[in-house]
Each structure stands twice: as C-alpha cells, then as structure tokens.
Amino acid sequence: MSSKNFIFTLLFFLLCFVQFSLCEFELNDEHNDIEKRVPQKVIETGVIAIGVIVIGIFVIFLVFCYLIALCVNRKAMNDVILSIPWTLWDFVLQALFIKNQVNKVHSLYMPSIVFFIGPVIVNIILSLVIIINEKKKGSTEFKRWFHANSSLAATATVIAGADMSAFKVLYSHIFGLKRFNAPFSDDSKTIILWGCVISSIIQDIPQFVIQILYKTEVEGGYDLIPFLKLVSTSVKLPIGIIGRVYEALKDHRKPSDDDDNNNNNDNNNSDMEK
Q1: pTM of the entire structure?
Q2: Rounded CA separation 274/269 (Å)
C-alpha cells in the first residue's frame, strides 16, 4: 500500500466514524419512543456498551495505522498518526455535543461555545504567525518547501485549529515523504510545542469540566455523544498535558561535534589540574 493510499484510508475511516456519530441524531425520535418503554438504566447501559465498542474499534484502527507508519520510517514522529485522528474525532464530538446535547443544560451553552471557538481562533492565528515568521527569516530551504507544499501547509493550519499538535505533521517525517519534512527552525518548533500546552489549558481542561458538569446536571438519559466526548477528553487531557510539557522542555538541538569536543577538553583540563 502506497503512502497516499494509506493516508486516504485513514481519512476514510475517520469520516466513517463521523458519519456513525451523525446517525445517532437521526434516530433521536425513535430513541425518545424507546425511552418511554424501556427502563432508563437499560438504555444507559446500552449507550455505554455501544460507546465502548466504537472507541475500541477506533483505537485498534489507530494502533494498526501507527504500526504501519512505524515500519515505513522508525525515526519519524509517528505519534501524529495517533494524535491527529483522535484530535479530529474529539473536535467533531465537541461540535455535535454543542449542536444537539448541551441545550439540555442551558447554563453550559455559552461556556461550551466560548471554549470551542476561542481555542480554534487562537490556534489558527498562532499557526499563521509561525509560517509568516519562518518566511520572514528568509530561509531558502523553507521557501522551497513552502512553495511546493503550500496547500499542505494551509490544510495543516486549518486542522491545527482543532489542536496545535496537528501542526507537527509538517515536520514529522512520516512515511519518509519530503512534504512532511518542513525545515522549521528550533524556535518555531518550540513555539509549536508550547502552543500545544496552551491548547490543552484553554481547550481540553474547560471542555472536560463542562462534560463533568453536564453529566451531573443533565436530566433524563445520558446519550452516546456526551459519553464518547467525556471518554475522549479524559484520555486526551492527561496524556496531552504531560506529554507536551515533557516534549517542550526537551532541547531540540542535536548535540554537535563542537559540544562534544568542548566537553572532552573540560574533562582533560580537570584531569590535569588533579
């Protein structure tokens, strides 16, 4: 399977999951009729069971994609194969939650809108600033890459609205493709990583709190989409914050020969002093 076909398959399965989510709302009327005849606990158990199955299939598919990418190029940032589809899935769940569910708890409607649209605007602006700064630096290598992959950069900028981690795909080296080998400077990579941390703080944490409040305050049945969103955020939040902080604290500059020579000279000098 070629890299292009693999990426197409990944997006296709993601769209299938989105379509599955939308189908849940097309059956709302039937669901309401069933609620009148079936005990509430039975309905909630069924919703949780379906949610677990959906998440399980989705996770298995992502792991399968990750293993394929790992076989193609072990040195690449193959974790984007896991993070980007999960981010888009979480983003779609949040949009569906706002559209169809949050109106059951009116006090959560405006906070849901603010912490959904606000981070999107911040992430897109930050992505644009990074691209513009790289072009201003006048790097010939980056200009060549941007000229050849401007559409990919634009797509990544839009997807980064859901989460800044999506922007890392541009320099992830996945599948060994040159288009995923953007020559960003170390400063830009650091900004991207700290942007991911900020995204978790202003987006994931508030959305997690909203889901908890919705779970405690909603009257009636607990539907599939809120359940999936709660699980998705619960998984994404701790992994995202801890992983991004650790990654941002790393020094992305590779040790140079000069650094090694300086260290050796320091060691020799200390030995001579002794």
Answers
A1: 0.71
A2: 9
pLDDT of 272 > 90? The answer is no
List the structure tokens of 29. 């009327």
> Considering just the CA atoms, what is the radius of gyration of the chain in Å?
23
Please list the helix, strand and coil fractions of the chain in percent, rounded to the nearest 5, in that order.
Answer: 85, 0, 15
What is the torsional sign of CA 200, 205, 208, 210? negative
Q: Which residue has the tokens 């193609």?
A: 72
C-alpha to C-alpha distance for 55 and 58, rounded to whole angstroms: 5
Render pLDDT for 125-134 as a digit per residue (tens, 0 to 9): 999 999 999 9
How far apart are the C-alpha atoms of 226 and 215, rounded to whole Å? Answer: 8
| Closest residue by Cα to residue 214 from 203, 228, 202, 201 | 228
Long-range Cβ contact pairs of 12-15 (< 8 A, separation 24 or more): 13/61, 14/85, 14/88, 14/89
Mind listing the pLDDT tens digit for each residue in 68-82?
777 877 787 888 887
Compute the distance between CA of residue 100 and CA of residue 27 in angstroms, rounded to an integer: 12
